[in-house]
Design brief:
Elements lengths: L2 H11 L12 E4 L9 E5 L4 H9 L4 E4 L16 H11 L3 E4 L2 H5 L4 H8 L3 E6 L4 E10 L1 H12 L5 E3 L5 E10 L4 H6 L4 E6 L2 H5 L1 H4 L2 E4 L2 H5 L2 H12 L4 E4 L9
Parallel strand pairs: 2-3, 2-11, 3-4, 8-9, 9-10
Antiparallel strand pairs: 1-4, 5-6, 6-8, 7-10
Helix pairs in contact: 2-3
């Protein structure tokens, strides 16, 4: 299957109309739309290390969640780190697709997978359809819930801000979800989980009446790589698909 055909098939399942207006995703770079795709590397981020790995292992395509190009490039020179990656990719005929906020919003995407991973049931959208809210099978105290989140996501640490609610109805947004705390309260959640919420917001958890759990941007979104891998394999059973860990942030 060639580059353009695979992108079009993926976009049928992850539609472009789900993308936030401020977002930039889709085909990030491609030297030749007609080039055959035989080897696909799945990653959360297109770091330079990932680019070098893809080139050294003869991958034809990288598929990421976070966009390779988010802001417009004013020049293509090696001084700019994003431009430098694009130059390398084009010189070695490696294409890049990024599926960002539309993959957060789509049914079965980032936030549905996160909700299922932490054990929620009766899952439904909240917060303009991007977030998810659901119920735990059994009520938990916050520390026990946080331990479950840490274990099931493989997170290196979980921050909690306690509003002294039993944990039963949980809202969530993978990645940076600080802007959805108010929507989680309005949706009736007693607890809100995201990758990053931030100091000022978490300090006010008790005042807002909602437990807040911050489990790391990377860890709340990394499960989507398995979804993307399975999706590509279902569309092209002949393609070799590999998942790469792009996390460059370590907790000491």
């Amino acid at each position: 299957m060639n580059v353009k055909k695979l992108y079009d098939k993926l976009s049928e399942l992850i539609p472009e109309n789900l993308r936030e207006e401020w977002d930039n995703d889709g085909i990030m770079c491609a030297q030749d739309y007609s080039a055959e795709v035989n080897n696909v590397l799945i990653t959360l981020d297109v770091t330079e290390e990932i680019v070098d790995y893809a080139i050294s292992r003869n991958f034809d395509l990288i598929i990421s969640h976070h966009p390779l190009i988010f802001k417009p490039l004013s020049r293509l020179t090696e001084e700019d780190h994003v431009a430098r990656k694009v130059i390398k990719l084009l010189a070695n005929n490696v294409s890049v697709f990024s599926f960002h906020t539309r993959l957060d919003r789509v049914e079965g995407g980032v936030n549905d997978i996160l909700a299922e991973r932490i054990g929620l049931t009766d899952i439904e959208p909240f917060g303009d359809g991007l977030g998810r809210i659901g119920n735990l099978p059994e009520e938990k105290i916050l520390d026990d819930f946080a331990e479950t989140v840490k274990e099931r996501l493989g997170a290196d640490g979980v921050r909690v801000a306690d509003a002294y609610n039993p944990v039963k109805r949980v809202a969530l947004v993978g990645g940076d979800g600080k802007g959805y705390v108010g929507a989680a309260v309005a949706a009736g959640a007693d607890t809100y989980l995201s990758g990053r919420i931030g100091y000022n917001v978490m300090e006010e958890a008790n005042e807002c009446g909602i437990n807040l759990v911050e489990a790391g941007h990377y860890f709340t979104e990394f499960p989507i790589t398995s979804y993307l891998s399975a999706l590509v394999s279902s569309l092209d059973g002949n393609a070799y698909v590999e998942i790469a860990d792009s996390n460059a942030i370590k907790l000491i």
